[in-house]
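To whoever is covering the structure queue this week,

Two jobs came back overnight. Logging them here so there's a record in the thread.

Job A:
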Amino acid sequence: MPTARRIYFDNAATSWPKPETVYQAVDDYQRRLGAPAGRSAYRDAAEVELAVAAARSAVARLIGAEEPARIIFTQNGTQGLNFAIHGLLRPGDHVVTTIAEHNSVLRPLRDLENDGQISVSRVPVDGAGIVDPDEIRAALTAATRLIALTAASNVTGAVQPIEAVGRLAREAKVRFLVDAAQAVGHWPLAVKEVHADLVAAPGHKGLLGPLGTGFLYLAPGIEQELRSIQQGGTGSRSDQDVQPAEMPDKYESGNLNVPGLIGLRAGVEYVLERTVEVLRQEEQTLTAELLAGLHDTAAVKIYGPTDPAARVGVVSLTFADFDPQVLAALLDSTYQIQTRAGLHCAPLMHQALGTLAQGGTLRLSLGPFNQIEEVRQFLGALNELAMS
């Protein structure tokens, strides 16, 4: 039987719904203020400037950054990762990464590699999709400048040992870049504890903000190494035709997405108020229910850790002889259950899982507004399809 309303299980792509405060904050800005940030001195523009500063402070507080100016706002997680990779690496550098990475890491590295500028080692993962820090250590060379690692896989949900990898990066005097797209807001992440030099994440996933938002965190001193790869107006040092050296202006050219950032502030404040620990526990309860039900469903193959405590709320599966795209279409059209099917922009991970040729997996990704009954409705729908 079709469900009465839409069930959304695609939070790894973008979270939905957002907290009501996010909608209200964006609407209030659009209707009442509408001014740019850092460009004018009239009253409404000054209010906007303060609101953007508050958004920066909220993100810094969430991840334990030393100061808000170390948060660079970007248009998404991909832009932050590109700023980090293209801004940090120099000809002759070596990078260690893993096959679990998203194309937002794989593609800029491949681009530089194909251009003959850098060399890259891509470390494998185990059967649960988790990297062994010793494998990363073994891949280091005298030319290694950067380790790039996802905090949690967007395919298997596997949480990676970023703290251990961060320690070995620090010991080896190698810079450490964390792709926190699937972790921030879902899993406690403190930049000092994981010894991260750079952390990139979108604002529209676990932080519950609007699309078109993201951030890149820079540890103290990284700004001395990280080139600005985009230059332009910043509203500061306007008497000079060179990019300002001050943070965050060095990396923030052009008008910021003010309505998005004001919405992001509201989303982050929601996460801070609920606490990541509470949100994590609620997500883990839903994930455990989902995994248990899938294990009881015939012809289902689950990818990633069996222990829900070892993953975020991202679950990939294949089902009987169903093509993942067909299965997703049936769930949507018949049951109004929205999932994602495909390769999830992580081709090396699917190659390792053996799901590349079949077009990937069906992925469910949970968010803070999903309910246990929705998980049960999905399991019921899968059982109905199995018997059809």
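Job B:
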Amino acid sequence: MLKSDLIKELAEKNPHLKEKDIKYLLESFLSIIKDSIKEDKRVELRSFGVFTPSLKKAREGLNPKTGKKIRVETKKSVRFKPGKVLFDSLNTDN
């Protein structure tokens, strides 16, 4: 599902809201999550899941083209762990 599909579906379920307002709210929501993760804060959405910032340590890797060793710098990443309700809904026939 694309973000535009999500906006359309939200607009269908909330006909009292304008699509541009839904888009603004969704952008704001995602921005808050992104900014929180950038600040190394954990974001928990009950029954959906948890976004946790993580740090990948520097390491030696291989250039797939040449096979030579290269240094891969430290990187920030994000982990997602689905909540119980989401996880259970994926594994049932409902």
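Note for Job B: The CA atoms of residues 7 and 13 lie 10 Å apart.

Please reply-all if you pick these up so we don't duplicate work.
Q.
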